[in-house]
Amino acid sequence: MSEPEPLPTTTKLLCVAYAVIAVVALIATWSQNLTYAGRGADFATAFWEDTKTTAAARSITADIALFLLAAVILMVYEARKHGIRFVWVYVIASFFIAVSVTFPLFLLARELRIHRSAAPRIGAGDKVGLALVTVGVAAFTIWVDVL
Fold it and tell me: What is the pTM of this model?
């Protein structure tokens, strides 16, 4: 078995950039999310209701939700193409942590595996998962923007 080729400097820098973005995003999002911690069981309800308080909040919330959908589609296809394991962990974590954290982490994993390209194999489970995320994001966008 041969030694893997060393990563080029540009790839290393890109991976560092993705990691830094993920850490900064975690701090930036959760420093705000924790303001809801004192609400106990009402945490999620209060948080999501506050995403609808102004037109700006609704715009940003819909923007992020639709970006998340595009990111999820990309993550699943790219994971299958490059053999990145546990793609659905990144997807599910996007909903509970922040897509601004998990997407750069996925991009970091992708960058480390990019040299092992192959045709993507999107199975039935992936198709169902993508359909569920699509329907969920569409319903959420309507809830935020219209209801």
Answer: 0.80
Give residue-wise pLDDT tens across range 100-113.
999 999 999 999 98
Give, in order, the Cα–Cα distances in Å from 105 to each of 19, 26, 58. 6, 11, 26
Residue 22 near residue 108, CB atoms below 8 Å = yes
d(CA 125, CA 136) in angstroms, rounded, equals 16
Query: For residues 1 and 117, what is the distance between their CA atoms, to the nearest angstrom?
Result: 19
- The answer to the question of residue 44 being in a domain is no
- Is the residue at 78 inside a domain? yes
Residue 45 falls inside a structural domain: no
Residue 66 belongs to some domain of the structure: yes
The residue that leads in pLDDT, 35 or 8, is: 35
Cα–Cα nearest to 114, from 1, 7, 3: 7
**Assign residue 37 a region: left if phi > 0, alpha if psi is -120 to 50, beta otherwise?**
alpha
| Residue 109 in tokens | 């994993």
pLDDT in tens, 48-86: 999 999 999 999 999 999 999 999 999 999 999 999 999
